[in-house]
Specification:
The complex is a heterodimer of chains A (190) and B (324). Chain A is α/β, with parallel strands linked by helices. Helix content of chain A is 33%, strand content 21%. Chain A starts with a helix and ends in a 7-residue tail after the last strand. Classes of the chains: A alpha/beta (190), B mainly alpha (324).
């Protein structure tokens, strides 16, 4: 008993210490979204530049790509042209693009769209009271959620997405596969 | 004697435990209390109750709505955890890890007590004295007593400890806030950052900080633009009131008395406790010969506990001037 006592004590300290260290850590990486595999929220989002509103659940059978963006989000500038191009590419082919302008008061968002582009096949909507951001558990911008034809959230990309990855995610969903998630770096605001 | 001591200790622990449970908060839910248990997802080391970011304020609105709908605290915390993940809750329910946190120290004390008994038994054996066998019941009672005392102390001490100050470092969930203090950032650095963020509420704190510097340096031309931007960037009532009060002062020193008065009234409308705006307004009233309006305002300021000691003499001087 005496011979093993100190070793047992050391082992306990190591195990308990490791356990504590694991609990203390809280890095800046965006955590995995618990929403993958759950139904997309159906809240109404007013159109930014015209009358009317859109719900992400308005398009049964279609894939919906919901992208959170703001004019103050630097990575959003990199990825926005990819969404504009993809919206044109998939027009009438069962993929809907909804660009959700999140926590972006003032008029800079319109300058952003003037600079980085609009598509006639893309819905640009507001996020009143940050409700969509909260429903999607958004930690920062940009974040993009992929919703399949059954209205289930099947993928998320945190951080800027490039055109190739965007097309790859959509192709996987069209093939009935789950594209999964990319947990990149997001911009949390000024 | 020893038995009485042990019984007394156990009874004391039970009393402490019972008292801790009885005095634990209950009843109707307070949104701020719930908000303190939800981490702000876009800031470090702050709860949504403490943070002034747009997201945190929106999340507090959701908390208030859910309380009004009759949801329990656990249901509200679970609702946020279902969207942001379990780390969004600053006080997660006791999962296996939580039970381990409690169980390991208790087990360590219990194990120590058992070892002590063993050692004592072995020592008495090696001294050649007749060995007194320790009854298993006595061992179980002692270990149980130690565990109860420890648990009682843990709960009892918890009721006396002040809650952690908002934003202060804490181990176990969020890291301490990092980054530079705004006082260390130069005006030029702030201008470079703020140039990118017109009309963004999250920038208001930095913008006000810079505007205050200009104001105190009497560079009113630079200050007024930033105060105006704050006003157009969805400010909090305190931010709006400060900006309006100081714009009022700038207008006053430029001879725009009517506009200045309008700004002061708006400042006090946004935040009636803004003592600086009251002070500025009182000066305007005295200068404008409206002593009957100035004196009540100055008397109100003289009784305001937030007014610094050194300002009181100046207030008394102005009351005397107004009365003369």
């Amino acid at each position: 008993m005496r011979r093993w006592g100190p070793w047992t004590a050391i082992a306990l300290i190591v195990v308990f210490g490791g356990f504590l260290a694991g609990r203390i850590g809280f890095g800046e990486t965006v955590p995995a979204s618990p929403l993958i595999g759950t139904a997309a929220p159906g809240l109404a989002l007013p159109l930014l530049e015209s009358e009317g509103e859109v719900r992400l659940t308005d398009f049964p059978g279609d894939i919906v790509v919901a992208n959170f963006w703001a004019s103050w989000c630097t990575p959003c500038r990199e990825e926005h042209p990819a969404f504009v191009a993809a919206a044109d590419l998939y027009a009438g082919k069962g993929v809907r693009f909804v660009a959700i302008n999140h926590e972006d008061p003032g008029t800079r968002k319109f300058d952003f769209l003037d600079t980085y582009g609009r598509s006639d096949h893309q819905f640009v909507v507001e996020d009143p009271g940050s409700r969509a951001g909260i429903e999607f558990g958004v930690f920062g911008l940009p974040e993009t959620f992929f919703i399949d034809g059954n209205g289930v959230i099947v993928g998320r990309v945190a951080g800027a997405i490039d055109f190739t990855t965007l097309i790859d995610f959509i192709s996987q969903i069209q093939a009935g596969e789950d594209p999964g998630t990319i947990d990149g770096t997001v911009y949390q605001g000024p | 004697m020893r038995r009485w001591l042990r019984t007394g200790t156990v009874v004391a622990a039970a009393v402490v435990l019972g008292w801790a449970f009885l005095t634990s908060p209950g009843g109707s839910l307070d949104a701020d209390v719930v908000g303190e248990k939800i981490a702000c997802p876009k800031c470090e080391g702050e709860s949504v109750a403490a943070s002034q970011t747009a997201t945190a304020r929106a999340m507090m609105d959701v908390v208030e709505e859910q309380i009004a709908e009759g949801r329990s605290e656990r249901e509200i915390l679970d609702w946020f955890a279902a969207r942001y993940g379990p780390d969004i809750v600053l006080e997660p329910p006791l999962a296996l890890g939580g039970y381990l946190l409690w169980a390991v120290p208790i087990a360590a004390v219990a194990g120590g007590a058992w070892l002590a008994f063993r050692t004592r038994e072995e020592q008495s054996g090696t001294a050649g004295e007749p060995r007194t066998p320790t009854s298993p019941l006595r061992v179980v009672l002692s270990i149980g007593g130690a565990a109860i005392v420890l648990t009682g102390l843990a709960f009892g001490i918890g009721t006396f400890v002040e809650p952690r100050a908002t934003g202060s470092p804490v181990s176990g969930n969020l890291e301490a806030p990092t980054g530079r203090d705004l006082s260390e950032v130069t005006n030029e650095e702030m201008e470079a950052v703020l140039e990118q963020f017109d009309d963004v509420p999250e920038a208001n704190r930095m913008r006000l900080s810079l505007a205050r510097r200009y104001f105190e340096e009497q560079d009113f031309g630079s200050a007024v633009g930033h105060f105006q931007t704050v006003l157009s960037s969805d400010p909090t009532p305190a931010e709006a009131s400060e900006a309006l009060g100081r714009i009022g002062w700038i207008l006053f020193v430029n001879g725009e008395v009517a506009s200045s008065e309008a700004a002061y009234l708006q400042a006090l409308d946004a935040l009636p406790t803004n003592s600086e705006a009251k002070w500025f307004y009182a000066i305007l009233l005295v200068e404008d010969g409206r002593s009957d309006e100035a004196v009540p305002l100055l008397e109100e300021l003289a009784e305001d506990p937030t007014v610094p000691e050194e300002a009181l003499a100046e207030i008394e001087r102005l009351i005397a001037e107004a009365g003369a």
